[in-house]
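Summary for the steering committee. The consortium agreed at its last meeting that each partner would contribute one worked example illustrating the joint modelling workflow. Our contribution is presented below. We chose a case with several input lines so that the handling of multiple components could be demonstrated. No manual editing was applied between input and output; the record is shown as generated.
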Amino acid sequence: MVWPIEVIVDNNALGSGDSGDIDIKIPRTRAISQLILTIRNKNGSTSNTDDDGALETIVNSISEIKLQAGSRVIKEYSGQACRDWDIYREGRNPQFFNTQIAGSTYPTGWQEAVFPIKFGRGGIPYDEICALPAPLFKSLDLKIKYDFTVDTADGFVTGSHKYDLVGEFLPPRSEAQLKNMMIIEQRKKFDDTSAASGDKAYALTTVQGGSQRLRQVMVSCYETGIAEGVDITKAEFSTDSTTRMVNDWNRLQWENAADCRLKFLQTIDSVYLDDSSHILYTEIPNVQPQMVAQDAGTEDAYLSTAGDQVTVAGAAAGENVALALHSQVIPRCIFFDFDKDGSMRELIPQNLQDIELKLTHGGADGAIEIHEMRVAAP
Amino acid sequence: MMWRKIELKDDVAVDNAVKGKDTFTLPTGHAISDLLLTVRAKNESDHNAPNATEAKTVINSVSEIAIEAGSRTFKKYSADIALKWATYRDGIEPYTNLTQALGGTYPSGWQEVFIPINFSRPIGNDRVCALPAPLYKDGGLSLSLTYDFPVDDDSGQNAFLTGAANHRYDLYANILPHLHENTLSGLKVIEQTKKRQYTTKATGAEYLDMTIDQSGRQVMAYLIDAYKTGVREGALLEKLELLIGSNTIMENDWQAIQWENAANCNLEYQRRVDMKAQTTDDEYRCKVPNVQPFYQPYVTTSEDAVITNTGDKVTISGQTVDDQGMLFLNSEVIPCTAILDFNKDHSLRHLLSMAHDKIQIKVENKTASGTAEFHEMILAPAVY
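What follows is the complete predicted structure of the assembly.
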């Protein structure tokens, strides 16, 4: 039986305003393997750039993607975290056409990014064990919160945002088969800000009497200008007050990269320089950039880096360069993975006394997020 | 029953200031899936940027990593070869930072390499292949590092700082849940050891003996590494042939084997080096024979730099001394390396028995004076 792939929404506006939220009803006729959300928006009439400031990208404009079945939250993450999970799953960056040139007729000057919402396990195509048994739920809603900055030079054109939603479905399954499926839930557990020093413990979710099992934990930490492993230097995972896993931030990232065979590359089709020494916040803390000139005046440009910040010097305001942004690790993130082989034999039961993550802080003001991925029955 | 990740050594200095061998006992409480070694060293006070001579890297400074118990050797290879095995396993080279910048407060000006020492197959949570450490507790299970960090070269330049505190390492382990002794005895151990070294010749074929054994061990793969500075892939050994007795089992050109290896592991090879020019025509010997280099200038005077290469020698011309930039070293193949793989699907069903009278690799030489190494990856019973 073919697994159908169907367009649920095609090129609709997210809502009437440039910020707000939208509630999309998800079809409940068949089990779902994945939902692929694509969002695009048109850059301002001059550019969408920022010198020495946070960029107004499609990814940063999506503050929450939440999938709910009644009161049950199945997925809950920002656009960035959704993509971070997927980098570890697939070993590569989901599609993100990032450009800063003036908005024009699509695709010229439009940013476009994919947000994969997946219910199967990585490396297991046609996963029949882990999927979302949608027919078992009375309602299924995908909620997206967005906030697009509107600006002619440092943002998007008002009222231009669009999205697509495509679903991959399983062939029809009996109710008994649906009830046997396992659901991969992903939710943010904590937001925090790093301190200059000290250890801090974070109590992860426990469910007394439940059958839910923890599959992965993702920690992200970002502060512009700061390299990997500075704001958080070490992470330790424990259960029932016994240390199970410990490692330094950088070495965990290196192991994560090997485990997912990471091939990370984010290109920026065109960086619009609004200063002769233009500072770009890439949000890739140990970025290794390569540049190509796009104007006659930029062939003598050169780069320097500080954490995620790339300075393009030696060009004139109004000129453009293309950048290829490499990283040897998944930017900003570490993962504790209890299911490297996808067999679900080594998961951590959540019905323990305590499950704890301890982070060693090494620099103040890093934005920390802690996310959990667990496997639960329908 | 949970898998664990434990700290064995965290940022410890090596025992000797420059050169030596450190040996320490490994824990034998649980079976070990992987050991994760990181080695780092601090560049000298001006830089570590040798021009037109061998690069002084942290990789080249670790000549041997050995894991042994009594007379049994489980792993014995250089850091360079450990990276080659890991690159084939994962399709990417493990993390390296081979900066040439002056040594400062870590991580500025520190070179660093992450060396996975795997007893598992690349399938995750492997319960078939692992090191049953509890079985070797009486044999003194140990890991040793043999190192020689080049120091005091060229008046404070072009090498590492002296002093043990400037040469450091970490070691972490992924360990299995507690296993019963019968289960431990049933585990398979992936051994990786160097069989022989060979100097290539200008012409002619030669038959080189590989290990034979009647104890139930099987070959998972042979790794052949061949390097001579300035010489391209396939120009040292142009063809390899595997023979059992007089029967040819595999034969192919060096480069064709490399291309197949790249496809098998879905290779994406790109090493990056922060450069600091020492002359206006700075030559970096990158040990990537068919390198496809890109250079990203970091200062205004290096934007006119041009790149040429001969074999692994990359010359950056048109800069001024001390100019900085990043060199991107791309390769379509695992550098210097050809692997004969009998376990492409990780199933362990197609391995080469070692119970033969003779197993040989025939090499067809093409250029003299290259250094070739022959390594064996063997699946062995826990005890034999």
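Residues 173 and 189 of chain A are 33 Å apart (CA to CA). Chain A touches chain B through 44 residues (CB under 8 Å).
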